[in-house]
Amino acid sequence: MKNKINFYRKQKGITQEQLAENLSVTRQTINAIENDKYNPTLELAMKLGKFLGVPVEELFILDK
User: Is the distance from CB of 23 to CB of 47 less than 8 angstroms?
Assistant: First the structure.
């Protein structure tokens, strides 16, 4: 699964560390998600969408 978290995070002008802190996860978790090495739980995906102000469907793209 691909994602656009990096794009939307940078649009908001926040670092991986700041995003991680706001979502109560580690920076390594955010890094792994952004680099398509880890698929977040549904709960974390929804928190990401809410925090970034973007619907989950726009943040994540299913591979074909």
Answer: yes
DSSP state string for 2-63: EE-HHHHHHHHT--HHHHHHHHTS-HHHHHHHHTTS-PPPHHHHHHHHHHHTS-HHHHEE--
The pTM score is: 0.91
pLDDT single digits (tens) 5-53:
999 999 999 999 999 999 999 999 999 999 999 999 999 999 999 999 9
Q: Which helix (H) or strand (E) holds 1?
A: none
Report the chain's terminal Cα–Cα distance, integer Å: 9
Identify whether the C-beta of residue 18 lies closer than 8 Å to the C-beta of residue 4: no
